[in-house]
Amino acid sequence: MKLSEFRIAVDDEFGAGYGRVVVADLVLPTLAGRTAEQALADGVPAREVWNALCDATDVPSHRRYGVGRLDHRR
User: Fold this and answer.
1) φ, ψ for residue 27 (rounded to 5)?
2) 37: left (phi > 0), else alpha (psi -120 to 50), else beta?
3) Measured between alpha carbons, how far is 65 from 50 in angstroms, rounded to an integer?
């Protein structure tokens, strides 16, 4: 997952406004207590951050994989 795909997935799942808040403020225990924003800045792969964010917010598995892809046919 590219960073741009991560951002699309966050906006699709949480909405653009609330998505920014979740990424900036929600502390993710599985990412050493960092926020998604901090983890991405530290070089954690976007897919790993997306999965941690989904775990923390109880996003169902059918909405986790493939979302955010720039070309859904890939």
Assistant:
1) -80, 130
2) alpha
3) 10
What is the mean pLDDT for each group of 10 consecutive residues in the chain (74 residues)?
93 93 97 98 97 95 72 50
Instruction: Give the C-alpha separation, 32 to 74, whole Å.
Output: 32
**Rounded Cα distance, 12 and 18, in Å:** 11
At 73, the amino acid letter reads: R
The string of DSSP letters for 9-61 reads HHHHHH-HHHHHHHHHH-EEGGGTTEEHHHHHHTT--HHHHHHHHHHHTT--G
